[in-house]
Every structure is written in structure tokens, then in C-alpha cells.
Amino acid sequence: MKELNGDLLAKGLKVALVASRFNSFLVEQLVKGATDAFTRLGGDEKNLVLVRVPGAYELPLLAKKLAASGKYDAVVCVGAVVQGATAHASLIVETTARAFTQIALETGVPVADGVVTAENLEQAVERCGTKQGNKGFSAMQAAVETANVLKQV
Question: What is the b/e burial string over 62-99, where b = at least 16 CB atoms within 10 angstroms of the residue's CB?
């Protein structure tokens, strides 16, 4: 039996990183984490493009445009959605997650979901680089590995 596995080497890959400006004090940690992962995995920062959007709800539109351009091996989206007194945060998270999957299926380009969802600010901080790691870092790892395995298929 032949088994295909993607490696965690970003050398030669071109990746678009799409970041929300909303909750920027959290999102900047995700951007740093994703950038750190890319370079630690051997990626050249010249091959990493950062695109800013107003909020998490705008992430899928840019992800689709970038994935469909044919210029990138993967797209990583980062944002931070903290639950408030309404269900608005849940709606945004469900909508974006579904959209990322649909974009990847339509374009054949991995779209990694690095959007932190939290019930409160403390949880959000933990998921943006403290106790529970950095979701930007792990999203970049997933994107690199998936892009590499796709090259073998």
C-alpha cells in the first residue's frame, strides 16, 4: 500500500495570510504566530502575502479571490470572535467556517481556518498565543502540510 503524507516544509510555497482588523490586539498575535510558523518551516517571507480585512465576516471573500487567483498554494485566515450578549458571534463563526471549506473544495486550494472563537476575552487571549497555543501557528502548519500532500495527488 502506498501512503501519501504532506510534510511540514514551506520552502517554495506561496501562501496568502488574510487577517481581520477587528480585535486587532488579539489578531496581531495570530499573524505573528502564522508568520513564525511559515518561516520556521522553511518558508521565505517574500512568498507570504498579508491581506487585511475589516472583520472576520470579510475573510471568506478575500480567501476565495486569493485561492481562485492561482498565485497561492494555500490561504490562511485569522481573526478573533469573542461571544457577546447576542448570538452574532456564533453566526459569524459558523458562516466563515462553512465558507472556508466551500472555497477549498471549489478551488482545490487549502484554506486554513485560524479564526479564534471564545466565550470571553480570557479564553481568546489563551488561544492567541498563551496557554492553549497560537491558532495562527497551527493554521499555517495545517495549510503547509495540506498544500504539500496535494502536490503528491
Answer: bbbebbeeeebbbbbbbbbbbbeeeeebeebbeebeeb
- Residue 9 inside a domain? The answer is no
CATH number, domain of 147, equals 3.40.50.960
Query: What is the reported pLDDT for 142?
Result: 98
| Residues spanned by the domain of 129 | 15-152
CA torsion, ordered 48, 92, 84, 25, to nearest 10 deg: 10
How many structural domains compose the chain?
A: 1
Closest CA to 36 of 140, 144, 150, 148: 140
The whole-model pTM stands at 0.94
Q: Which residues are catalytic?
A: 88
What digits encode the pLDDT tens for the residues 57-108?
Answer: 999 999 999 999 999 999 999 999 988 755 778 888 899 999 999 999 999 9
